[in-house]
Task: inverse folding
């Protein structure tokens, strides 16, 4: 025994007790919660970009990237979500929400933007179109109900803006006999 430390069978000089392991786990959990909380607070109330009421530059970039991936140019509709000005539509839509709900949606935008960092090494808005489309599809079938609902929320709100755009609604109206887009 050297310096009052009893060697363990594994050769380590310190073998933690159950109590010490629980304390370490508590410290890690508290540190993680504090880190996530600090990041969430930094996203909570960002200043709106010039020309927008609610969305910051990062949020505009995410909505633009999400829109272009969710509503790509196709043979049927030669106009995509990336060209439809959906960040402005989304910004106006946020005006209809209560302040706390609006802030939560904005935090959601930041959260989804950061999800691919662990798997792709980049934020959602910085990925190529195909990778963004693959992620939206994967998130739509995710095991987590919350993830599926988050993506469905964005697809629904941005889809309303895309489908009612003056260049899209006349094309879509030909598929519906109810007078849509007329």
Result:
């Amino acid at each position: 025994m050297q310096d009052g430390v009893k060697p363990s069978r594994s050769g380590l000089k310190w073998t933690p007790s159950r109590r010490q392991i629980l304390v370490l786990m508590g410290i890690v959990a508290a540190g993680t919660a504090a880190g996530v909380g600090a990041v969430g607070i930094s996203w909570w109330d960002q200043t709106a970009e010039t020309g927008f009421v609610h969305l910051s530059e990062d949020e505009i970039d995410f909505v633009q990237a999400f829109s272009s991936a969710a509503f790509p140019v196709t043979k049927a509709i030669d106009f995509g979500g990336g060209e439809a000005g959906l960040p402005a539509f989304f910004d106006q839509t946020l005006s209809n929400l209560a302040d706390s709900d609006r802030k939560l949606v904005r935090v959601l935008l930041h959260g989804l933007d950061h999800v691919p960092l662990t798997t792709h090494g980049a934020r959602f808005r910085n990925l190529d179109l195909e990778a963004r489309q693959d992620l939206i599809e994967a998130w739509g079938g995710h095991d987590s109900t919350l993830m599926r609902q988050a993506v469905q929320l964005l697809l629904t709100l941005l889809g309303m803006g895309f489908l009612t755009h003056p260049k899209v609604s006349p094309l879509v109206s030909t598929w519906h006999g109810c007078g849509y887009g007329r």
